[in-house]
Design goal:
alpha/beta; Rossmann fold; 43% helix
């Protein structure tokens, strides 16, 4: 049941049109027809992130299967998911700059934050998380989903899905290179950076054969790199992990993703980092 729920969570947030035949070749509007998430699925995900919720994750609604199939088909020609936020980005760019002061860039742990703490994403704070994404996919969409919005600040969290090997085997140096690439792009465009640690986990429900043995060394590198680059580093692991390095059971429903209480534990660190960064 948890695997089914994660597959649905991994497909939240879409474009603005019903699924159609994908455009071919180089065209003016490559995102025409990106599948839209059904309201019933949105409500389902919202129901998971409520205070005090316990027990197994419920089965997704019937609409989820068709949406998942359409989204997976779309992903065959949009590996980086560049179209996921295309319409939202266009609307923001057409509006005032105050509506896009901060961008949260990341994977499902960023994406689902919107459901657990919607109050954080107000006043020009924009969520650009996509579940399941690895750091090379984020590099691919960094110009579209961050730089093109001209924010003052980006909150960057990546690495969980690199450790799980979601887009295939990868080297720790490749991950480090991708973080450096995104920070370099941000700084070159006058965007301040908050660099987040990879949240703790002892394993992945969708890849049980893979163990996150490099999680601690990569977090140590992130902290050191942030210090050398003058970035603000946020160590979410400090409030989320058990002594053994797992995600505390009261803060998760699957050992990887924070629940409502997990995000609540992260909130003071997040808000302090945002306040500090925006004052610089």
């Amino acid at each position: 049941m948890i695997r089914t729920a994660i597959s649905v969570l991994a497909l939240c947030f879409s474009g603005t049109a019903a699924a159609q035949t994908a455009p071919q070749g180089m065209v003016e509007e490559p995102c025409a027809g990106v599948p839209v998430i059904p309201p019933a699925v949105v409500s389902y995900v919202q129901s998971i992130y409520v205070p005090g919720r316990t027990g197994p994750v419920p089965a997704p609604p019937p609409e989820a299967a068709a949406y998942r199939a359409a989204a997976l088909e779309w992903a065959k020609t949009d590996w980086g998911n560049l179209c996921r936020y295309h319409a939202d980005n266009q609307a923001l760019i057409a509006g005032p700059a105050s509506g896009r002061r901060v961008v949260f860039m990341g994977d499902s742990i960023t994406q689902n934050w919107l459901f657990a703490d919607a109050s954080l994403f107000t006043g020009g704070v924009v969520n650009r998380g996509i579940s399941g994404q690895t750091s090379p996919q984020m590099v691919l969409r960094f110009m579209r989903d961050v730089v093109a919005l001209h924010p003052q600040l980006v909150h960057l969290m990546a690495g969980t899905n690199d450790l799980a090997g979601n887009t295939g085997p990868n080297a720790a140096q490749d991950y480090r290179n991708n973080i450096v690439a995104m920070v370099t792009l941000a700084k070159a465009n006058g965007i301040k950076v908050i660099l987040a640690s990879i949240p703790p986990t002892s394993g992945f429900s969708w890849r049980p054969e893979v163990k996150p043995v490099l999680l601690a060394p990569l977090n140590a590198w992130l902290k050191d790199y942030a210090a050398k680059q003058g970035l603000i580093f946020v160590d979410y692991a400090s409030v989320l992990r058990t002594p053994e390095g797992a995600l505390r059971p009261e803060f998760t429903f699957d050992g990887v993703h924070p629940n409502y209480e997990g995000y609540a534990a992260m909130a003071p660190l997040t808000r302090a980092a945002l306040a500090k960064a925006l004052k610089r």
